[in-house]
Design brief:
This protein is an alpha+beta fold and 241 residues long. The protein is 38% helix and 16% strand. The longest helix has 19 residues.
């Protein structure tokens, strides 16, 4: 039931931990309707790929239907063509695709921008809370969730100055440290100098060298320069790919 679902999964942002900086932009437009929809799907065991259906359902080989949010019936997908996707497909690399698609003034481009910009602001607002630096957050999303580019690498891809200008034009607040960064003349989160990857340090307010990965057993971790480790642990240093 909707009420039970909302009680078990209280996703209202007012109940989020105070230390995590969230924004009203993450609120559902109609939370009660969203609860009702998800509750019905859970009740019917429409949980996704493992239950053979969720928001999508495979009808036959190569045939996939999508759920009608009004009737909760599965119907053939009404595929549409958007210029944002057409332009993006002309690009080989993800960075170039992202750079192109957020500048596309159609439904697809605006939708991607809306979702992406909120996620990027969330990551930027929580530096020092969920991780100490941009490198750690980017690596966490890539290593843990399979992202090809971390959020701050995405910022570089779409253009930091473009991002800030558009955020302000939409009446949203830019993360203070990003404004300070641009004011100091830094326009990229990452740079490649002499073949070495360096990133912007919020604490030092300058570009610093990416530290090497160190392997303990079968695990690779970043060790801050100068940090001491247990001498009994054998460490092999490998360059990050």
């Amino acid at each position: 039931m909707a009420s039970n679902f909302c009680a078990r999964f209280p996703l209202r942002l007012s109940q989020a931990p105070a230390t995590i900086k969230l924004s009203n932009t993450f609120r559902f437009a109609d939370w009660d309707s969203t609860c009702l929809l998800i509750s019905k799907m859970v009740e019917n065991n429409w949980l996704g790929q493992k239950s053979k259906q969720g928001f999508y359902k495979k009808i036959d080989k190569g045939i996939i239907h999508s759920i009608d949010l009004e009737t909760l019936e599965y119907k053939p997908m009404n595929k549409k063509r958007y210029s944002a996707f057409s332009l993006a497909k002309e690009k080989t690399y993800l960075r170039d695709r992202l750079h192109t698609i957020v500048r596309s003034d159609d439904i697809a481009g605006n939708f991607l921008w809306t979702v992406m910009s909120k996620s990027l602001l969330y990551a930027a607002n929580n530096i020092g809370i969920i991780a100490d630096d941009i490198l750690s957050i980017d690596n966490a999303l890539k290593w843990g969730f399979g992202w090809e580019l971390g959020p701050f690498e995405v910022l570089d891809a779409i253009g930091l100055e473009y991002f800030v200008k558009r955020i302000k034009s939409e009446g949203n607040t830019v993360t203070p440290w990003i404004s300070d960064m641009l004011s100091s003349g830094f326009t990229c989160m990452y740079v490649l100098l002499d073949g070495k990857k360096e990133y912007y340090s919020i604490d030092k307010k300058e570009i610093v060298l990416e530290e090497p990965l160190k392997e303990i057993g079968n695990h690779f971790i970043h060790i801050h320069l100068g940090e001491e480790l247990n001498p009994k642990i054998k460490i092999k240093i490998k360059a990050e790919k």
